[in-house]
Amino acid sequence: MARLSYFVLSSLAILGANAAGSSVLDLIPSNFDKVVLQSGKPALVEFFAPWCGHCKNLAPVYEELATKFAGAGDKVSIGKVDADEHKSLGQRFGVQGFPTLKWFDGKSETPEDYTSGRDLESLTKFIEEKTGTKAKTQKAAPSQVEMLNDKTFKQEIGGEKDVLVAFTAPWCGHCKSLAPIWETVANDFAAEPNVLIAKVDAEAPNAKATAQDQGVSSYPTIKFFPKGSTEPQPYAGGRTEEDFIEFMNDQAGTHRAVGGGLDAKAGTVDVLDAFVAKYTAGESLASIVGEVQKAASGLKDKYAEYYVKVFTKAGNSQDYIQKELTRLEGLLKKGGLAPEKIDDLTSRSNILRKFAASTGLKDEL
């Protein structure tokens, strides 16, 4: 009975260690010993800090690693410790920098430092050699990253798209670490018709000339080409998903958020928001509508007319704004929508929230 109780408690501890939607075990002082030291199986543990740039770069690689070994959960664990929050665990195992990866063999409390590459290939090979367990090979989803060669580079650059290009080499460790992040960023911008996330294999026979023309001498080299221009801007920012999204939003005028959705500003129009501000401040609707219609007619923005529609509908129905916002939020929550539809409903919801920001709906409506 005692053994059964221990097994149940251990299983619950392991189940509770998984963050929602993640294959990586979240380890804290209360479950670390049960999951890592007392489970009888080896574990790879990352000690990280949320503010650490290298940790952010490693995160998607580490998640993919855990997913590859998720089917071998009875033979190996992949976990992580927020050593900034749980300093006692970091101190206990001599962690002095982030990220620190340590291998626990399941027999000893003294771990082995992981000192190899932080790319998926190196990490996978390490675990396979240590455990004799083969990682599950998953069918890769179609890549949204455009591979450019000497011919297609000339076709894409200088056209109607803002292009972010990573010049890479197959043997480059930093390129391998960048790869899953680059794929994620490409997925984030997949619904943006005028944005292209691309790569050039600088050592491929059909792309070497392009890399040389661009003066590429180290890897990865990242360059941004604004639409209509063949003159690049060197990218010198961070290499996390968030960093790349922020950069592209600034350069291309997009409003993507981490994960590929839209941010709270998507769809809104500053010029028309000024009229919404008048409305929410208490100005008469009748005195605003004409100005809005005039201003919207001179804009090319696809949501300009939606502002006119909302002003008009609000004048005909006192509770239109709140009802419509509730309806759109319900559709988004229900799911099952195409990406383009999600973007559209999100943009319209953002506009409606501008109106709903008033202290209360007007009596005149």
Q: How are the elements arranged and paired?
A:
Layout: H1 2-17, E1 25-27, H2 32-37, E2 43-48, H3 53-68, E3 77-82, H4 87-92, E4 100-104, E5 112-113, H5 120-131, E6 146-147, H6 150-156, E7 162-168, H7 173-188, E8 195-201, H8 208-213, E9 221-225, E10 233-234, H9 241-252, H10 270-280, H11 285-297, H12 304-316, H13 320-334, H14 339-356
Parallel strand pairs: 1-3, 2-3, 6-8, 7-8
Antiparallel strand pairs: 2-4, 4-5, 7-9, 9-10
Helix pairs in contact: 3-7, 10-11, 10-14, 11-12, 13-14
Helix content: 40-55%
Strand content: 5-15%
**What low-confidence regions span 5 or more consecutive residues with pLDDT below 50?**
1-16, 359-365
Give the strand order, joined by hyphens, for the main sheet.
1-3-2-4-5
* Alpha carbon gyration radius: 26 Å
Outline, from the CA principal axes? globular
Give, in order, the helices and strands. Answer: HEHEHEHEEHEHEHEHEEHHHHHH
- Derived from helix and strand composition plus strand pairing, the structural class reads alpha/beta
What's the rounded overall pLDDT mean? 90
Amino- and carboxy-terminal Cα gap: 69 Å
Separate helix tally = 14
**How many beta-strand elements?**
10
The biggest sheet amounts to: 5 strands, mixed
